[in-house]
Every structure is written in C-alpha cells, then in structure tokens.
C-alpha cells in the first residue's frame, strides 16, 4: 500500500495516528496493519469510505459488525445488479450497432465532418 494512501486514511479518520519514532517516522503496529487489510477488503467489495468508517466504529466497540455489514453488502449487491443491467443493455445496443457495420450504403467520411451528421 502506498504511503500517501495510508496518510489519507489517517486524515479521513479510518486509521488512528500511529506512534512516532524519535526521528519522527510513523510506526504501525499489528492492529494498524489488520485495520488496513480490513479497509482494503471492504473497498474491494465496493463499499464507500463513509460505510467503512461506520463499520470500523462498530468493530472498535468489540461487538460483531455482522448486521451492519450485511445491510451494507445487500445495498452494494443491489447497486451492482443495477449496474449489470445497464451494462447488459449497453452491450446489446453496441452489438446491434456492430452488426450493422459496415453498411453497403455507408459513405467514407470526409475528415472533420463525420460528426456533423450526428449533430443535425
């Protein structure tokens, strides 16, 4: 993980400020590394930083975050389903356009004018 990403997580409140060496270098313990892995894992699932912040707050209380995590994942799955539907429709439209190419009556475009017909 890049150092600027870790510092961003600190600024965003996802990662507590680490201890510092006498030279001022950040020193992360195992719990910080575990927290960073949790953040990365939840981001791979598509959760937003606000959602991750909420899960971490629950996690920090020592109670099981399963119920809030389940709600977030259900919502994220619904978002993915909607995206997949839109992408499926877009793919079908593009495949239809591709089948229509090249049309026999398609004229060679003049440089700089092929978009002109689209604007009319």
Written overview of the protein:
By secondary structure, the protein is mainly alpha-helical. The protein has one domain (3-98): Multidrug-efflux Transporter Regulator, Chain: A, Domain 2 (Orthogonal Bundle), CATH 1.10.1660.10. Helix content is 62%, strand content 3%. The chain contains 5 helices and 2 strands, in the order H-E-E-H-H-H-H. It has helices spanning 3-11, 30-44, 49-60, 66-99, 116-119; strands spanning 19-20, 26-27. The protein has a two-stranded antiparallel sheet. The longest helix is centred in the C-terminal third of the chain and has 34 residues, at 66-99. The radius of gyration is 24 Å and the shape is elongated.
Structural class category: mainly alpha
Distance between termini? 50 Å
* CATH level-3 fold name: Multidrug-efflux Transporter Regulator, Chain: A, Domain 2
| Tally of discrete structural domains | 1
Morphology: elongated
Query: Judging by the overall fold, what is the CATH architecture?
Result: Orthogonal Bundle
* Helical segment count: 5
Strand runs, count: 2
Order of helices and strands: HEEHHHH
What is this entry, summarized?
The chain is mainly alpha-helical and 120 residues long. It contains five helices and two strands.
